[in-house]
Amino acid sequence: MKNSNLLVICCFLLFSFFGCKSGDETETEIETEACLSSEGKVTIMPLGASRVQGFRPVFESYRYALWKEVINGEWSVDFVGTQKDTGAYDSYKDFCFDYDHEGHSGWTSGQINDQIENWLNQSEIPDVVLFSSPGGNDALQGASLESILPNINAIIDKIQAHNPNVTIIIEQMDPAKSSFMDEELTAIFEQIHTLIAQIAITQTTETSIVIPIDMASGFSDDFLADDVHYNSKGAKFIAEKYYDKLIPYL
Question: What's the rounded Cα separation, in Å, for the pair 219 and 65?
Fold first, then answer.
């Protein structure tokens, strides 16, 4: 593990988490934009950590690029969650960006597991959950696979208990920058990829499908703004993969 790089990333994640404007300020900005609401019938919860939250202009979330794909497809979709993005986003085709999400910078699978029921109770019921980089921050912090796996399963259990008909698209996550991916980190990422495929099978029920999505294939260092976060090219790459999986459920 590259401890110096990890320390920089952890500090940066803490800054991005605490350095945001208040929700009241964000709501005021959204309400004053002269554009139409894009909220629709299919509710989608983007769930995860900093790759979901984003931190413009330093790095991107995939959510804005995905939202534009949805607008282009003329789908009726509403992003949901207890968090509101504080970044500046242009309107698109006369629609305002849908700022809602459930991304929490620096959070581990254990922390998400502890809070997921509260978030679900405080937001609209999601028809679809996009589960980003499960176990990614755990792996960056040196956690064992044995400690990560039960949390991922428990998160899915709680989502399905909240909505037995939910569709969950869960990432086989893309890597960090190649210079950052030492042998230990590469090995645990590969193990998580394999387990996510197995989890998707075992957690799928008669009414709730869990779908793995391979974000690693085709991913490159050119898609990263730093060691782990997306630039605009990376955000578009991830968004397009999500969109292709989402179409049958929209």
Answer: 16
Contact 138, 147 (CB under 8 A): yes
Range of the domain at 234: 3-10+24-249
Question: Mean of the pLDDT values across residues 51-68?
Answer: 98
**2, exposed or middle or buried, with CB in 10 Å at 0-12, 13-18, 19+?**
middle
In-domain check, residue 68? yes
Tell me how many domains the chain contains: 1
CATH, residue 244: 3.40.50.1110
Which of 133, 160, 153, 145 lies closest to 51 in space, CA to CA? Answer: 133
Examine residue 19 and state whether it is found in any structural domain, yes or no: no
Q: What tokens does 215 get?
A: 């974000």
On whether the CB atoms of residues 120 and 156 are closer than 8 A, the answer is no
Is the pLDDT confidence value at 120 over 60? yes
Query: 228, 140 in Cβ contact below 8 A?
Result: yes
Q: How confident is the model at residue 34 (pLDDT cuts 50, 70, 90)?
A: confident
pTM: 0.86
Specify if 15 maps to a domain.
no
